[in-house]
Specification:
Length: 167
């Protein structure tokens, strides 16, 4: 399986911002990065009136939209897929997958924590917690990185996730 790391944290903690910075850092190092964003509330990427929307509205279970630069798949599903299923079905030709969301999973995690949110760490007792990216130093049993130091966090991911697979 392609190595992956899950970026988790409470709402508005900065998960997306960290993922963006990690994509940039890892891409600069020559890695091909894929992402999975979980949204338990649902989402819609198709727009009313467009051809693909009309295909789905007419009853197609799956619609593929293709151009010379992009491909998108809109597929009805009967349940919330697990991370492994999403990787198996949709992800290929990459070196690492960064997952945002899926707070309760068994994969390696980096939790994003912000003091101003006045909340507790949600993954502190999770065996898959690798590190925390925080805006304050924390006395915990895993590495705690400055949330704004994406280079050092990318170093950590490269060493503990990507290169571990290469060995």
């Amino acid at each position: 399986m392609i190595p992956l790391v899950s970026i988790v944290g409470k709402s508005n903690s900065g998960k997306t911002t960290l993922v963006e910075k990690l994509i940039y850092e890892l891409k600069q190092r020559g890695y091909k990065v894929a992402t999975i964003k979980h949204n338990r509330h649902g989402f819609d990427i198709d727009h009313e009136g467009k051809d693909s929307w009309r295909h789905k509205t007419a009853g197609a279970r799956m619609t593929v939209i293709a151009s010379p630069e992009k491909v998108a798949v809109i597929e009805d599903v009967d349940r919330d897929y697990e991370i492994e299923e999403l990787v198996e079905h949709y992800i290929h030709d990459v070196d690492i997958v960064l997952v945002e969301g899926f707070k309760r999973n068994i994969h390696p995690k980096i939790e994003v924590f912000r003091k101003e949110l006045k909340r507790e760490l949600m993954s502190i007792n999770d065996e898959s917690l690798l590190a925390v990216a925080s805006d304050q130093p924390l006395d915990i049993d895993v590495p705690c990185f400055d949330i704004n130091d994406s280079r050092t966090i990318a170093d950590f991911i490269e060493e503990t996730i990507i290169r571990k697979r290469e060995r």
